[in-house]
Structure formats: structure tokens, C-alpha cells
UniProtKB/TrEMBL annotation:
It comes from Cardamine amara subsp. amara. One of its GO terms (cellular component) is cytoplasm. This is Glucose-6-phosphate isomerase. Transmembrane segments: none annotated. Pathway: Carbohydrate degradation; glycolysis; D-glyceraldehyde 3-phosphate and glycerone phosphate from D-glucose: step 2/4.
Length: 560
């Protein structure tokens, strides 16, 4: 067992797994897959989902050893501490309670001794009421017109999660029906090109701007917010801001200072991490404006279903726990530094970008939660694209180059089925044929002997050989409704937490993003003084000085 300052790599279970790697190296997935009992034990069903992890480079013995690691890492206790609202984000002295954001109304979840569920539902009720006013047209803009378009300004966790859910729902039949005549756009980048793109074709008279920022200090978001405030005031006058701008934040004082009516601010709490905030007003407000609260409530229920499963299911049947343990196995023992997220669903095209932040901002750490340097790597490089697009892009490397464990995510029932008479299969079946084929191609590969039998010429055999033995897992969702989107989100959130708990790091802080921000402040000051007073460049190294000089001498920024 780990004491509070010991590292997990010193536990018996970790050492045991290190030794076990040699056994696994002697196996090939081709053989492992022929053991039906093993495969059967690696299938798991819950609430309509089917998880198949039989294509992991793991045996029943490996799973037992990973469960021992969970024990030695005190995973049960760590999960309980999270649900009990203890300050497990110790470097920020905060609870980690995104599960409270989707808890049923009668649940009791405490932070600092106080049940937070009623506060959560107060905000949800307020969002319901407000979004209904906007959607019904009973709330109108400064010139009396209904607000049919929404621009949500935010970045990182105040953007990626809501964008993922919005993209997933855009073609869901129920959501389509509810979104008729409305548009939701996200403005994240401080690049003025993003502003130009997002306001293109919109009329300030019919647009509502939602400023989303946990801190309300993020430089990009605040400048974008000021830019759109200007867009509104130039067109409609300063008093229009009250009708056309609302905010989501934990910092209501700064919201008011910015000029947004505090009555039109939707709160959340410091026990919600930015990347875990999609189920707070951060996601719920823009999504309710677009799709109506009842659709978003289903999304919350899906996430809550996984929360309960995660909290109460024994580890050997617990989807996020097993996924987390297998990721630790792949990273720390088999030495695979990356993970590909491959949804066979265009609607999930923004899932990988969201998980990049959830996973890499959470687990990309260099020290333990107690500040000890880690002698092992944590986190993995997450990336992905929907299938089949990815197949025509980077799959070459996955099949014959580096070994990258893959998550295949498939959907049984398409949101938008198409079948053309005379075609061999429907369009969705065509897509799913690839979903079922790729994991086997990776696992089995193709041997030189097989190629010889096919009379492939000798010189091409090395090029056409596939080593196989490349791990993946398959997750099959019954459909992609708001409920299922919520399930998928929560599975990945908890999987990332499990990995962090096992590695013994703090998955809920993000000090690594700060240094770059500080250096940008110095550059911003210099750009201002150089442009307004012609001040010479000072305090930068040769490289940055040269680049800045070129930028200042040749750029044609508007006069200040
Ligand atoms: O810079 C990283 C970060 O702090 C993320 O953790 C966060 O999601 C994002 O910036 C946006 O922060 P905020 O919601 O406070 O604007």
C-alpha cells in the first residue's frame, strides 16, 4: 500500500506488473483472441453500452494484477474522497465535485459540510427559465426582436466540452427538432480571424452573447468579450449590453464590473475544474439556449448514470476503472506513450479535442501529489479523428509504424440513416464495417506466410507485412442521443481520474499552463510601448528579439 508520501512504483503490485510485462511480451493478440473464455471475461455491459477490451495486450492474470495495483494505490479510498467532497485538489485546496453537477435533485453531496445539490439545481432552474424566455421570444433584444442566435465566448474547458456536446447533438433528430431556426457558435481564439468568422452573417439585433469564464480573467476570453461588446454597442448603443450579453462564471464580482447585469449571470463553483465544467452552466446554458433544457437534462442524466456506476460497481465490472487501469498498463508497463480516440461517428468529431484537454491537462504532470519527482511518466498523448476519415490519414503509422493503443467508439443506430436502393449495405453499415474490421487488422496483422500464399512478389512482402499485436478496445453505444453523449463524457472523465489516482498525482490542477501566460504579459507590454512610444526591445533573448523586431518592423497593425 502507498502511504501518503510513497510512490506507487514502490508497491508490490507495481513491481509484480513490471515482472509480468515479460510474460505478455511472449504473447500475440492472435493467440490471445482465440481463447474464448478470456474474451468473454473482457466484455462488459452497462446501461446499453458494450465494452470489449479483449484486444488489449492483457490476460486474465494481467487484470488480476491491475486490480491489485488499484488496491495498493488505494483507488477505492480516493474515489470515495472525491465523492465525499474532500479537498483532493490539494494544491488549490479544493474539492472535486463535477459529479454534483448532474446529481438528481434529492441527492446529498457535500463540500465543506454543505450539501451543494440544491445550489446546483437553483442554477439549473434559472437556466431553464432563462432559456425558455429566449427561445419563446418573450425576452427580446434592444430593438424588440427575438434572439435566435447565440455566440458563446470561452476557451479551454469553457469551450471544448460544450463544443463537443453541441457537435454531437447537431444531427440528433430530437435535438434538430428543438434547435429549428436557431444557431449556436463558439468563439474561443483571440485570433481576430475567429471573431470575423463567428460574427459573419449574424445581426447584433438578434444575437445573444454568452461570456463563459470560470475566472473571468482569461486574457483571450476577456478581450473577445470586449470586442463583441463593442460590436453590440456600435450597432445598438451601450444600453443594449443588458439585453444582449450574459455570463457564466464563478467570479460574479468581475462579471458585474465588466458591465453585465448580475441577474443575468449564471454561477458555478470553485469545486468544478474548468475541463470538468461542461455539466455546469458552462455547457448547460449555451446548450439549453440551442436545444432547450429538456434535451440537456437527458445529457446530465446520462452522465449521472455513469457517476453512479463508477461510484458503486465493483472494480472488475466498472467501466471507467477498467479503462483507467488498462491505460496505466499501456503507458507505464508496455511503454506506449500515446492513445488514439477513434469514434466512428462524424457527430463525435469534437470528442478527441475535448478529451485532449481532459486527459492531458489533468495527467500531464511531473511530480506526485506530494511534490515528489516521478521516476515514471504520467499521462499520454491523446489525439484522434472520426473514422473513417482517420483511416485515410494517420492509420498507416498505427498499422505498420508505432504502436498506439486505440479506442474505437461505434454507434449501433445512426442519427441520420441513409440507404440507397441497390447498394450492398446502408451508409451506416458501410461505416460500421470499418469499425469492426480495423481492430482485427491491428490485432492479427498479416504474416509473410499469408502473403506468400497470396503470391505477393518477394520484394513487396516486407512492405505488405503487418506485425499485428497492436492493442485496442471497442465501445459500442446503442445510439447517440443526448443521454449517450452524457454517458460517454462521464466515462472518459472518470477514466482520466482513475489514471491520476493510480499514478498518485493531482489530476485537478494545471500549473503547467501558467508560465507561458506570464511571459506573454511581458511581450504584450513590450508591444504596447514599442508601438506607442517606439521603445526599443529589452529583456528578451537573441532569438525572441530578432523575431519581435521582424514582427514590429513589417506588420501593419491598426494605429493605437
Ligand atoms: O489556461 C488553461 C485554463 O486555465 C484551463 O484550465 C481553463 O479551462 C481555461 O484556461 C479557461 O479558463 P476560464 O474558464 O477561467 O476562462
Amino acid at each position: 500500500m502507498t502511504s501518503s508520501t510513497a510512490l506507487v512504483c514502490d508497491t508490490e503490485a507495481w513491481k509484480d506488473l513490471k515482472g509480468h510485462v515479460e510474460d505478455i511480451k511472449k504473447t500475440h493478440l492472435r493467440d490471445l483472441m482465440s481463447d474464448v473464455n478470456r474474451c468473454e471475461s473482457m466484455m462488459l455491459e452497462f446501461d446499453g453500452l458494450l465494452l470489449d477490451y479483449s484486444r488489449q495486450r492483457a490476460t486474465v492474470e494481467t487484470m488480476d494484477k491491475l486490480l491489485n495495483l488499484a488496491k495498493d494505490a488505494q483507488l477505492t479510498e480516493k474515489i470515495s474522497r472525491m465523492f465525499n467532497g474532500e479537498h483532493i485538489n490539494s494544491t488549490e485546496n479544493r474539492s472535486v465535485l463535477h459529479v454534483a453537477l448532474r446529481a438528481p435533485k434529492d441527492a446529498v453531496i457535500k463540500a465543506d459540510g454543505k450539501n451543494v445539490v440544491p445550489e446546483v439545481w437553483n442554477v439549473l432552474d434559472k437556466i431553464k427559465e432563462f432559456s425558455e424566455k429566449i427561445r419563446s421570444g418573450s425576452w427580446v433584444g434592444a430593438t424588440g426582436k427575438p434572439l435566435k442566435d447565440v455566440i458563446a465566448i470561452g476557451i479551454g474547458g469553457s469551450f471544448l466540452g460544450p463544443l463537443f456536446v453541441h457537435t454531437a447533438l447537431q444531427t440528433d433528430p430530437e435535438s434538430v427538432e428543438c434547435a429549428k431556426g436557431r444557431q449556436l457558435r463558439f468563439l474561443a481564439n483571440i485570433d481576430p480571424v475567429d471573431v470575423a468568422r463567428k460574427i459573419n452573417g449574424l445581426n447584433p439585433e438578434t444575437t445573444l452573447v454568452v461570456v463563459v469564464s470560470k475566472t473571468f480573467t482569461t486574457a483571450e476570453t476577456m478581450l473577445n468579450a470586449r470586442t463583441l461588446r463593442e460590436w453590440i454597442t456600435v450597432a445598438l448603443g451601450a444600453s443594449a449590453v443588458a439585453k444582449h450579453m450574459v455570463a457564466v462564471s464563478t467570479n460574479l464580482a468581475l462579471v458585474e464590473k465588466f458591465g453585465i447585469d448580475p441577474n443575468n449571470a449564471f454561477a458555478f463553483w470553485d469545486w468544478v475544474g474548468g475541463r470538468y465544467s461542461v455539466c455546469s452552466a458552462v455547457g448547460v446554458l449555451p446548450l439549453s439556449l440551442q436545444y432547450g433544457f429538456s434535451v440537456v437534462e437527458k445529457f446530465l442524466k446520462g452522465a449521472s448514470s455513469i457517476d453512479q456506476h463508477f461510484q458503486s460497481t465493483p472494480f472488475e465490472k466498472n467501466i471507467p476503472v477498467l479503462l483507467g487501469l488498462l491505460s496505466v498498463w499501456n503507458v507505464s508497463f508496455l511503454g506506449y506513450p500515446a492513445r488514439a480516440i477513434l469514434p466512428y461517428s462524424q457527430a463525435l468529431e469534437k470528442f478527441a479535442p475535448h478529451i485532449q484537454q481532459v486527459s492531458m491537462e489533468s495527467n500531464g504532470k511531473g511530480v506526485s501529489i506530494d511534490g515528489l519527482p516521478l521516476p515514471y511518466e504520467t499521462g499520454e498523448i491523446d489525439f484522434g479523428e472520426p473514422g473513417t476519415n482517420g483511416q485515410h490519414s494517420f492509420y498507416q503509422l498505427i498499422h505498420q509504424g508505432r504502436v498506439i493503443p486505440c479506442d474505437f467508439i461505434g454507434i449501433v443506430k445512426s442519427q441520420q440513416p441513409v440507404y440507397l436502393k441497390g447498394e450492398v449495405v446502408s451508409n451506416h453499415d458501410e461505416l460500421m464495417s470499418n469499425f469492426f474490421a480495423q481492430p482485427d487488422a491491428l490485432a492479427y496483422g498479416k504474416t509473410p506466410e499469408q502473403l506468400q500464399k497470396e503470391n505477393v512478389s518477394e520484394n513487396l512482402i516486407p512492405h505488405k507485412t503487418f506485425s499485428g499485436n497492436r492493442p485496442s478496445l471497442s465501445l459500442l453505444l446503442p445510439e447517440l442521443s443526448a443521454y449517450n453523449v452524457g454517458q460517454l463524457l462521464a466515462i472518459y472523465e472518470h477514466r482520466v481520474a482513475v489514471q491520476g489516482f493510480v499514478w498518485g498525482i493531482n489530476s485537478f490542477d494545471q500549473w503547467g499552463v501558467e508560465l507561458g501566460k506570464v511571459l506573454a504579459t511581458q511581450v504584450r507590454k513590450q508591444l504596447h510601448s514599442s508601438r506607442t512610444q517606439g521603445t526599443t526591445l529589452e529583456g528578451f533573448n537573441y532569438s525572441t528579439t530578432t523575431l519581435l523586431k521582424r514582427y514590429l518592423e513589417t506588420s501593419s497593425e491598426p494605429q493605437m
